[in-house]
Amino acid sequence: MHNHAQDRTKEAVRVTWIGAIFDAILGVSKIIVGVLFFSHALIADGIHSLSDLITDFMVVVIVKIAHAEPDEEHPYGHERFETLGTVVLGCLLVAVAGAMAYDSGLNLLDPSEKNVPGWPALVIAFASIAIKEALFRYTLAIGKRIKSDLLIANAWHSRTDAYSSIIVFIGIAGSMMGIIWLDSLAALGVAIFVAKIGWELSWKSIQELVDTAIPPEELSAITASAKEVAGIEDVHSFKSRQMGPKMLLEMHLQVKPYVSVSEGHYIGDSVVAKLLREFDSIGHIIFHIDTENDDKRNSCMVLPFRAEITDIVDHLLENLAPELTRQNITLHYLHGKIEIDLFITPPPSSQIDITAINQSQLSEQLNEHLMKYTWHQHLNLWLAI
Question: Could you say which of 209, 241, 269 is where a domain stops?
Fold first, then answer.
């Protein structure tokens, strides 16, 4: 797991630095060519590309934090930092879309003549489209492979840059052909698309930050897999949440009422091992072993603990069969009541023949006296030979 996280971090950082290098080259080139060949749109696009460097640096920092090992302050890991970064990136996309729409609206309303840019500006705009589209596809593929929403968001940021360059290309071409308003109209349509992408990315991550449950189909598949383990009667009280690329699960596993604590725990461990083996999207599982479906309880039951019950049983034995002692007692808390398995034996120094004890009569007497307690279900008497 540790090596896998390190590989994810290295791959995410590498693809982000590649994007940052191209952003820097494109930004400087657009500004220089825009100034030399009278393209205000290209200058603005160059500034936009340079501003992407801030986003790239932010992605690198957040990825390194998000993939750090769990510590005392973050025992579940740091993946939520990646989720938070995705929210920020999504909001930046919406902001970019708003700025694009605003500028496009002003250009549509401004009838003044504009300088006609030269053909080198058209070449740089086309090169920007090709490079940004290639970066988008490369970053998106890596992001999906390592399941990083932050990288996916950054990929879509590159796609918006490609669309921005398309707008610049159309604007430059339109200006050269005399159709000045064409770039502004196209920009409005692209702005709507960019805002939609940004909103979807932010909303998905916000849902994760507020611990929204996993989709019902995933829940059904996980529950069905858990029920296949021998000894599992039912799965209930299922809770789930997403943390970066991993799911965190909590569940109650119902086993047969009379299995031992160790056997029940082993069955639970077997469920965890099976789910982690079959679902690589699961990061951590907390389970609780139940002997009944406690979701169906309608009230809070207050039942006595072992010490109180032991005192009651010992007192009854002292009165009904003083020649016998309690060897062991097992308690079963089921259906709001307590079932008792009582194992009795004569004292070590006693000469009493245990086989001569009337077991059924003593059992009947003990149950009769215990019936006055509302928590009592039944006492099973066993002779320890």
Answer: 209
